[in-house]
Structures are given as C-alpha cells and as structure tokens.
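2024-03-11 09:14:02 DEBUG pipeline.ingest accepted 1 chain
2024-03-11 09:14:02 DEBUG pipeline.ingest length=302
2024-03-11 09:14:03 DEBUG pipeline.predict start
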Amino acid sequence: MSIIVQEVTKLYGKQKALDTVSFSIKTGEVVGFLGPNGAGKSTMMKILTGFIPQTSGKASVFGFDVEEQSLDVRRNVGYLPEHNPLYHDMYVKEYLEFICGLHHLDKIQARIASMIERTGLQVEQKKKIGALSKGYRQRVGLAQALIHDPKVLILDEPTTGLDPNQLAEIRNLIIEVGREKTVMLSTHIMQEVEAVCSRVIIVNKGLIVADDITANMQRGSSTQQIVSVEFDKETTQLSLLGIAGIQSAHENGSSRAWKLHTTLEKDIRPDIFQFAVQNGLAVLVMQKEEQKLEDVFKQLTK
C-alpha cells in the first residue's frame, strides 16, 4: 500500500477535525478525497505530507511513518496545497531550479524542460510568477509537486482557476501520472472526480461516510431508480402512481413528460410500458437515469 491511515484523530483545541479515520490507497490508484468545507480533507492531507502531526493514530506513506520518518515521506511525496504558496518575484524557471536544489536533484535543466512541457508552461516560462494568471500559477504548483518524480502525489484543489482547455489538459496529466504513481486529490468539482478518479472517499465532520470505486458511487448508495418518460398524450399523476412500486411522479415540463421514482430493485420500465399500452398512450422517450456523484455527495453530507 502506498498510503495507510490507521485510526487517525486530529484535535484543534476542543474541535475534532478528524475522528479515528482509517483507509489505505494502493499504488496506481487515483483517489478522490471529498467532503464539504470543514470536513477534514485538508487536515488529512497536511498530516500525510508531514506539515502537521496527528493527535493520535498512525499514518504511513510508501512505508515511511509520517511522524518518525518525516523527511523520507517528503522525499517520496509531491504536494500541491489548496493555497498554492509561490515566490511571486521569481521567474518560472528560476523557481523550478530552486525546488530542484531543495531536493538535491541532478540533471536539473533536463528535468525543468520536461516538466515545463508536461504542465504546458512553455509560453510563460520566462515570466515572473507574479505576472502569471491564476491558472498558470496553478501549473507552476503542479510542476514543483512533480519535478522530483515522487511516488505519491497529493493534490488539494489542483484545478482551481483553470479555464476549460487548461482543465482538460491538467486532468489528462493527472490520469497519465496516475498510471505509475499513487494520486490522492481533493476537489469540489464532481465532474472532475468522475473523469479522473478510480475511487472515491467521502469524509463528513471528520468521519469517513463512504469509500468505494467511482462506478459504484455513481450507481448510488441506495436502490432508488429515476425514470424519465414522455408520452404522446397527457396523463395524470394519480394514474402514474397506480403503477406498482412508483413512489412519486413529477411533471417534467408538461403533463406528457414525467420523472418517476421508485426504490424497487427490479427495472420498472416494462411496467411503465405496460401502463402506456393499457391507457392508449405511445411512449416517445423513456430513460433510466443514473444517480450522479453529486447527488450521492449531497445525500451523505447533508
């Protein structure tokens, strides 16, 4: 396992930011670490990167204890914090040279050239960091997190401030990196998690409330089904509620189009079709909707 967390608790005075949290992440996994503001996400990431100690429990990164072997942890981790700390008076290449020096790296110029290309900084590489847009400063932060070729990459809100084109490029970079490294990222953008992450951990009020592969999360935490249907003629809510298992029916723009909800495990579309036949209706559209990750997130963190 690249990351192992065992019953970690973190107290800030009397406030409990993390409450006996346990999980593990394998090499090659891209894991979304999600939660509302104040849930404990950034606290967990700071513990794993050696920035702050836990109050109790154990955590290790690539076999190194985060408290007892902090320097070894930092050698093997690339970290992009939520508030990207950069030296704005430095030029891009100058800053990356500085980071290489901190890590005592060799072949510095080759590393810098490769990282500038991977993170799309070619056009801006001769500018001062303070003159860059927020999106390009975020790219510089990613470059410093990757330049020492870490085994584990921990990213706190990595795509903040990026435009749609930059967003796609950075997502592709994260997917590429995730093929050979362990990636743990925090974000509030659910589409980003669906596009990038193979697994999702959701934390709320310092507790893990869900941990599963992304596909299972998208199917939802319950057996609820939502079916959108449109008939060629108007029908009533009362008649639709007569279909066995339908718990609620809501108009979807007109009295011909409806959203039907049920918690039955069986597919209810054949029953809806049979209802249409019995009532002289033609089905124009019928689609079973998958529950979005955003819906699951809301259910678990209300």
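2024-03-11 09:14:41 DEBUG pipeline.report The chain has two domains: 3-219, 225-291.
2024-03-11 09:14:41 DEBUG pipeline.predict end
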